Amino acid sequence: MSSRDHYTPGPAAGAEVRKDGESWTLVLVRDLAHPPAVVWEALTDPAQLREWAPYDSDRNLGAVGTAKLTTVGAPQPHVTEARITRAEAPSVLEFDWGGQDIRWQLSPLGADGTRLTLWHNIDRRYIAMGAAGWHVCLDVLQRSLDGHPVGRIVGMEAMKFDGWQRLNAEYSRQFAEEGT
Questions:
Q1: For the chain, what percent of residues have pLDDT higher than 90?
Q2: Is the residue at 20 inside a domain?
Q3: Among candidates 170, 152, 172, which has minimal Cα distance to 52?
Q4: pLDDT digits (tens, 9 = 90+) for 148-165
Q5: For 119-130, how does the pLDDT look when each residue is reduced to its tens digit (9 = 90+)?
Q6: DSSP codes joined into one string, the chain
Q7: Position 126 in a domain
């Protein structure tokens, strides 16, 4: 039995939605037991992105400029040119991914931990799905960093994965209760 067979996403947690005019932003927070420099590498290094992220990159994302991001798990390969607008190792990474703004903030937590915060500007109709998808990605990232990789679970595969439907429903309820 693989470690993936033992993976089940935890309950919906650490997410909120912010509305600014007609713009909606999903905010997810995850505490990781690894220092910011280690988490930064996982967010920027193409080899590490292949372990957990919903996209592949043609270059390291740790410098301002453009990169080609290929969405993984989509019915058709979808390549977009991302503009990395801010790369301040190991604390802030911002880029445009297919017209959606993504910002990662890494804050030291205790002696060797990181509070990872993701801001994702997303269409209101897809906020719960986005939260469920990122939740699984961040779980996979955490397991990869902990030395217990389960392999990337994204796109259509994630939506079929045990626990994703529950997460999507939990986030839908949570955001409805918050009035989003």
A1: 71
A2: yes
A3: 152
A4: 999 999 888 888 877 888
A5: 999 988 999 999
A6: --GGGG-----S-SEEEEEETTEEEEEEEEEESS-HHHHHHHHH-HHHHHHH-SEEESS-SSSSEEEEEEESSSSS-EEEEEEEEEEETTTEEEEEETTEEEEEEEEEETTTEEEEEEEEE--GGGHHHHHHHHHHHHHHHHHHHTT-------HHHHHHSTTHHHHHHHHHHHHHHTT-
A7: yes
Q: Is residue 4 part of a domain?
A: no
Domain of 138? 12-177
The partner residues of 66 in beta bridges, in order of sequence, read 83
Residue 40: which CATH number?
3.30.530.20
Work out how many domains the chain is built from and give that number.
Answer: 1
**Contact present, 39 and 116 (Cβ < 8 Å):** yes
Q: How confident is the model at residue 1 (pLDDT cuts 50, 70, 90)?
A: very low
